[in-house]
Amino acid sequence: MSLEEGISLPYTKGKIDVEKPLDSESDYSRTFKPGRPSTPSQSAARSATGLLMHYKKGILILATLLFLSFFTSVPLIPHFKTSSPKVVLILAANEGGGVLKWKGPQEWSVERSSIANKQQYAKTHGYGLTIKDMTIKKRYSHEWRESWEKVDILKETMRQFPDAEWFWWLDLHTYIMEPQISLEEHFLNDLQNQTYRTLENFNPLGLPVDLPYVDYNKPIDLIITQDCGGFNLGSFLIRRSDWSEMLLDYWWDPAMYEQMHMQWEHKEQDALESLYSTQAWIRERTAFLPLRKINAFPPGACSDKAKDPQYFFQIHDFVINMAGCEYGRDCWGEMEHYKALSKKLHLNWWKFW
Amino acid sequence: MFGPGSLKPKYGSKKGGVLPYFSGHARLHFHSRKNLAILITAAIVLVYFFNPLGALGITFSIFSRRNVPVYPRGHPLTSTEIIEVDTKYIYPPIEHAQLLRELTMKELVKEHKYRDADFPDIERYEIYSLNKDDDPDPIKQRLKEDEENQLLELVKAKNYFKNQDKIVYKGKGGSYPEVVIVTTINFDKYSMEALARIVQNRVDYAHAHGYGIYVRWSQEFLPALNSFSYMQIEEKEKWTRLFATRAAMFAFPKAKWFWYLDEDALILDSSVDILNSVLQPSTLNSLLLREQPIIPPSGIIKTYKNTKADAIKLILVQSPSKVETTAFMVKNDDVGKSLLQGWCDKLFVSYSNFPFGPDSAITHILQWHPFFLSKTGIVPTNLFASIHPETEVPPPTDGSRTDFTLYHEGDFVASWWGCKKVECEKIMNKYYAKIASSKA
Questions:
Q1: N- to C-terminal Cα separation, chain A
Q2: Quick one: where's region Disordered (chain A) (predicted)?
C-alpha cells in the first residue's frame, strides 16, 4: 500500500484507466469539427435526431397510429387498454350470514384468507375484483325471490365494470391454488378446445343429450362445471352479451318458479338445469369445463363418488372449491390446509427454510 | 487487478486485426442491414397486430390448434334428418285433410305410456312423432316409404304428415325470401276447400312480393304440446303457433322476418307490402305504440317510450283488452329466436294460470322481464290483423279504441276467432268473396 501511494508513477496504481489519460489528452487538443459528435451522449442524441429526420414519414404514421390506438376508439385499429380489466372476479362473501347466525372467529379467518387470495390473484394478472355481500336479508317483496341474489349481483357487476368482458363468479370457500396461471392461458384463449358442449360423455343428471334446433356454432357465453350432482355454480364464468343479459333477465321467472319451487332446492342451479334441458338458445352458448379445471373438490365433497378421480383436487390443480364444507365439515381447517399447501407448492427454491 | 475486459484494444473488440474498417464500405453494409431489420420488424408488426389477412379468415397465431371438437348440427323438432326443397312455398298436401281426419290424431303420433316411480297410481303418456321409428339410414327409409306410399293412401298421408317437419328451404342466393308467412292449419276445423283457400291466399300474397310461406298442420306439434286434450282446447292449441314459427325459422334460416298469421285470417289486399308498410325501421319507428299498456286500457306496465325500431325483435298487436297472437312478427336473429323459445317454454305451456295460452304467457313475460319488453313493439292492430266485427272481444273498461282494432273496408288483413266450425267457414267465405270481387 505504502509503495503504491509513495510512488507517483501512473501505471503502477491499482485502478488505472488506460483510456483516461488518452481521453484527457484528446480533450486538450480537440478542435471543433462540424458534423462530428464530440461526446458519446451528444453523438447518441445526434444519431437519434438523424434517425428521426431520416424516417420522418414513418414515425409520423406510427405516432398517429399509436395515438389513435391509445386515445381514441376508431375502428380497424387495435386498441390496447390497460385501464379497464377484461376479466372481473366476483367473490361472494358472507354467504348464509346475516339474520341466521353470527360469524365466529374461524369464519372471519376463512373470509380473510379467501379475499386475500383473490386480491393477490387479481392484482397479479390485472383483473378486476369485486366482493359482494350475500347476507340473507328481507329484500324482495316476493318470498321465493330470496337467495336468488346471484343474478342481481351479476347484473350489478356488469354495470359496475362496463368494459369488462368475462365475469368469474367464485364462492367464498374457494382458493386459487396456482395464482401464477392467468385465465387466458388456462383456457380463455383456447375455449373451443378446452370446453365440451354436449353431454354425451359426462351427464351425471341424465339430462336430454339431444335437443332440436341447437346450433353449436354460436360463441360460448357461459362456462360452468358439472360435479357428481349436476351443474355447479360455485365457480363459473359468464361473458357480457345480449345473450347473457337475456339469460340473467329470464333465469328467474315467477310463473316457472311457482310450479317448481318444491323441486328446485338449489334454486339458480336447478333453474339453469331446467332451462338447459328444454331451451335451445340456452344450450347453444353454454359450455362445460372439466370440474378440476376451475372447481376441484376436496375429498369431503361428493362423498358418494369418492373413488372417481375426476372430481377431486390433485397437486397443481388451479382452484379448489371446498363445496359444502359448512354442512358438517371444517371450513377453516380445509382452508388452512389448502392455503398452506399452495404456499408450499410455490416456495422458491432458494428459500429452503 | 487486470480483470478480463478492463483493458480494451483500441479499435473495438473484434479479433483478427487492429486496423479500422474501410469507412465508406462499412457504412454501406450497416445501412442495408438496418433497413432489412426494420422491414422485417414492420412486417411482423403488421401481420401480428394489424392482421390485414384477418378479413380472409387467415390468422397467424401460435395458439391455434387443429383438433377443434365437432358437434352435431341443428335439426328439426322431431327428426335428425332434413329434406331440402327448392320451392319457397312450403305447405303440407291439403288434399290429405280428409284422410288425416279419418285417421284421427292419435294415429298420427306415437304414444308412450309409463308410470312414474314416485306416483305409480297415475298413468302418464309421452307423445312422440312417428319419425322416431325411422330407419337411421335416410335412403333406406325413403325407399321403404316410396313402397308404402304406392300401396295405401292412408299410409301415404301418414308418411307425408310425419315428414313435413323435415322440410327446409334450399336457399338460392338471389331470390331468398325476406319475409316468410307462417300459418298452422287444423284439418278438424275447416273443410278441405276452405283450407285450400286459406293456403292459396298466402301463396298469392307471397308470390306478389317474392316472400315465402310455411304452413303446418297444427296436429304436427302434438309431440311439443305433449297432450291430446290440449288440441281440443282452443286456447291451448294456440301454442302450436309458436312451435310452427320456430320450425319456420329452421326451414328458412336466412329470411329476415317471420310473420305468423293464423288460419282464421285472410290477406285482403295483396298490393300492401308488409316490409314497407310495417317492417322498415323508419316506418316501424313511427308505428310503434309507445307507453302502451301491455294490458289495455289501463295496465301499469307499459311499452318503453324511447325504444328504437332497430331494437325491435317481436311485433305484437292487441285486441281492446289483451295481447293477441292471431298475428305477430319475429325477427330472424339470435335474440328473436331466443325470445320465441323463451316464450314457449314447457312450464309456460303447462301453466294452469294462463287462461289464454301464449297470449297470457307473453303478457306475463313482458310484465316481468324488462329485456323482453325492450325488444318488443306493439303496433296498431289494423296494420296486419284487423278484427272481424262479430268476433267476441271483451270491450275495454273505458270504451276507447274498440273502433280502432275492428275491420274496416279496405283493411289489409281480416281476422276472426272464437267461432264455431261452420260459422268460421262462413266468415272465411264472406271475406274470400271480397277478394274475388276486388280481383274481378
A1: 43
A2: 25-44
Helix (H) or strand (E) holding A176: strand A174-176
Indicate whether A70 and A170 sit together in one domain. Answer: no
* CB of B190 closer than 8 Å to CB of B227: no
* Residue B57: predicted pLDDT: 47
The 10s digit of each residue's pLDDT in A187-213 is 999 898 899 999 988 999 899 999 999
Residue matched to cell numbers 354495470:
A159
Least confident residue range of A79-88, A234-243, B282-291, B379-388: A79-88
Same domain for A109 and A63? Answer: no
If asked whether residues A254 and A167 sit together in one domain, one would say yes
Grid coordinates of B81: 334428418
Helix (H) or strand (E) segment spanning residue B257:
strand B257-261
Cα–Cα distance for residue pair B288/B283, rounded to 1 Å:
9
Q: How many domains would you assign to chain A?
A: 2
Nearest CA in chain B to A23: B10
ipTM entry: 0.81
Task: Indicate yes or no: CB of A259 within 8 angstroms of CB of B350.
Answer: yes
Reading the block at residue A94, the C-alpha cell is 358472507
* Domain ranges across chain B: 84-439
| Pair A129, A161: CB distance under 8 Å | no
Share of residues in chain A with pLDDT > 90 (%): 46
Helix (H/G/I), strand (E/B), else coil: B335 = helix
CATH topology of domain B84-439: Spore Coat Polysaccharide Biosynthesis Protein SpsA; Chain A (3.90.550)
Q: What is the DSSP string of B276-330?
A: IIIISHHHHHHH--TT-BSSTTT-S-B--SS--GGG--EEEEE-SSSEEEEEEEE
Cβ atoms of B258 and B332 closer than 8 Å: yes
Structure confidence at residue A338 (pLDDT): 95
Give residue-wise pLDDT tens across range A313-322. 999 999 999 9
Q: Which residues of A touch B248 (CB under 8 A)?
A: none
Q: What is the mean pLDDT of chain B?
A: 86
Task: Determine the Cα–Cα distance for residues A257 and A251; give it in Å rounded to an integer.
Answer: 10
Could you tell me which chain A residue has the CA closest to the CA of B165? A212
Report the candidate in A158, A150, A168 with the shortest Cα–Cα distance to residue A272: A150
Q: What is the CATH number of the domain that holds A246?
A: 3.90.550.10
Closest residue in B to A219 (Cα–Cα): B334
Q: Give the 3-state secondary structure of residue B87.
A: coil
Decide if A272 is inside a domain. yes
CA B194 – CA B187 distance, rounded (Å): 10
pLDDT for A23 beyond 70: no
